[in-house]
Write a structure and sequence with these properties.
By secondary structure, the protein is mostly helical. It has two domains: about 1-215, SecY subunit domain (Preprotein translocase SecY subunit, Orthogonal Bundle), CATH 1.10.3370; about 220-395, Preprotein translocase SecY subunit (Orthogonal Bundle). The protein has helices at about 1-10, 10-30, 40-50, 50-55, 60-65, 80-95, 100-105, 110-140, 140-145, 160-185, 190-200, 205-215, 225-245, 280-290, 290-295, 305-310, 315-340, 340-350, 360-395, 400-405, 410-430; strands at about 245-255, 255-260, 260-265, 270-275, 355. It has a three-stranded antiparallel beta sheet. The chain has a two-stranded antiparallel ribbon with strand order 2-3. Helix 6 crosses helix 7 and helix 7 crosses helix 8. The protein is globular. The chain starts with a helix and ends in a 16-residue tail after the last helix.
Length: about 450
């Protein structure tokens, strides 16, 4: 593995891509620490440092996670790439339900380019709306951060709001462009790498919290607990890697076809169906939706509703039960909107392919749908287990949420998934130049 990293710097093109990616990451981190004009975030940083465990699993915690600390710093990149992700998700869902978008997608590269362009326009619109509400939140920070009584903006008003909307929208568009540049001229998916770097940026603070918790003067844990948690981290990472890469291989046989005077086709291959087809999206959907019931029910002064509201706070039994059920639901929802077995079966039939033992056409589509339904259950159960681990550690074992978030949940899923994808791309460059990947060292014998 270490030899593969060293060999990466020996290939000129790969070295340029790596240096370009690192340079863009540095620019993204600088923008996440430059405050918006007219905002002094020092008091907010001190306040969030004190209540880190309380905001960890809330919407504010999720926003700080996705923005890499930009929201906490009231920065130019305060929204991060969240509007771009929201716009991409909306366009993906619209493509599945609007026939005109579906036709665009089937046109090939030109159609997909138009859909991506529409997603960018939608990103700008989302930025303007969210930027306005964020400017209002900077003027009245107690609404976004309950309990905060400090002052972030000394000269509030329409001028500050317009300047903040313009600054934050420009920052998000710039960050979106930087992510696309990484995808085109660097290594890995640019937007995902920017999110991952923001997550990893919190790792030193999480390690310091864990060190103080286990080896500090007022420690309530011993070395055995530290070893068990270390083993748990390794097991969670191994499980995420295994399930992220797990696929169900559907054998596909292609019949020979006569095209002109040539005989084409023939042979056997397989169609990989991912076990965790939805990725991290069900967790994000479940977290976002579960924010509203607790807020709405807590407005009632009746004792029963107050008890229900307390059970709907992060880490409580009712919250975890609903959280798990919603992850299961959105896992199947995402598969239902994105996986089209009828189209796959038609494409196989058009190119002379068929699943051995299954008739082409509708029977193939039913077989693929049944198989995907079964493996999605395994992926959804895995996501549920990984998602609730941080809440259990934080709520039941009194582990700080910042530290517990690296034992599972959205942070670990995004980080491991992006690193695996980046390593695959680096490995493909190594193979093209005659080097081994990350499992064996040296040059492949016999290659030039």
């Amino acid at each position: 593995m270490f030899s593969a990293f060293l060999n990466s710097w020996k290939i000129p093109e790969l070295r340029r891509r790596l240096l370009f990616t690192l340079g863009i990451i540095a620019l993204a981190r600088v923008g996440a620490n430059i405050p918006c004009p007219g905002v002094d975030p020092s008091a907010l940083n001190e306040y969030i440092g004190k209540i880190q465990s309380q905001v960890g699993g809330s919407f504010v915690g999720l926003a700080m996670l996705m923005t890499g600390g930009g929201l906490q710093n009231c920065a130019v990149f305060a929204l991060g790439v969240m509007p771009y992700i929201s716009g991409s998700i909306i366009m993906t869902l619209l493509t599945a339900v609007i026939p005109s978008f579906e036709r665009l997608r089937q046109e090939g590269e030109s159609g997909r380019a138009k859909i991506i362009q529409y997603g960018r326009y939608l990103t700008v619109l989302i930025c303007i709306i969210q930027g306005f509400f964020l400017a209002k939140a900077f003027e009245n920070p107690g609404r976004l951060f309950p309990g905060f009584s400090g002052v972030l903006v000394k000269d509030p008003g329409l001028g500050f709001e317009l300047l903040t909307v313009l600054t934050i929208t420009s920052g998000t568009v710039l960050l979106m462009w930087l992510g696309e540049q990484i995808t085109e001229r660097g290594i890995g998916n640019g937007v995902s790498i920017i999110i991952t770097v923001g997550i990893v940026d919190r790792l030193p603070r999480a390690i310091m919290q864990a060190w103080t918790l286990f080896f500090g003067p007022e420690s309530s844990f011993n070395i055995l607990h530290a070893v068990l948690l270390l083993v748990m981290v390794l097991a969670v990472v191994a499980g995420i890697i295994a399930v992220t890469q797990a696929t169900r291989k559907i054998p596909v046989q292609y019949a020979q076809r006569m095209v002109g005077r040539k005989m084409l086709g023939g042979g056997q291959t397989f169609m990989p169906l991912r076990v965790n087809y939805a990725g991290v999206m069900p967790i994000i959907f479940a977290q976002a939706i579960l924010l509203f019931p607790q807020k709405i029910i807590s407005m009632s002064h009746l004792a029963f509703f107050q008890q229900v509201a307390r059970q709907l706070t992060e880490g409580e039994g009712l919250y975890l039960a609903l959280y798990g059920l919603m992850i299961l639901f959105f896992s199947y929802f995402w598969v239902a909107t994105q996986f089209n077995p009828l189209q796959i079966a038609d494409d196989l039939k058009r190119y002379g392919g068929y699943v051995p033992g299954i008739r082409p056409g509708k029977p193939t589509a039913e077989y693929l749908d049944h198989t995907m339904t079964r493996i999605t259950l395994a992926g959804a159960v895995f996501l549920t287990v990984i998602a609730v681990i941080p809440y259990i550690l934080s709520h039941n074992f009194k582990l700080p949420y910042l530290t517990a978030s690296f034992f599972g949940g959205t942070s670990m899923l995004i980080t491991v998934g992006v690193m695996l994808d980046t390593m695959r791309q680096i490995e493909s460059h190594l193979f093209m130049r005659g080097y081994d990947g990350f499992l064996r060292k040296g040059k492949v014998r016999g290659r030039r």
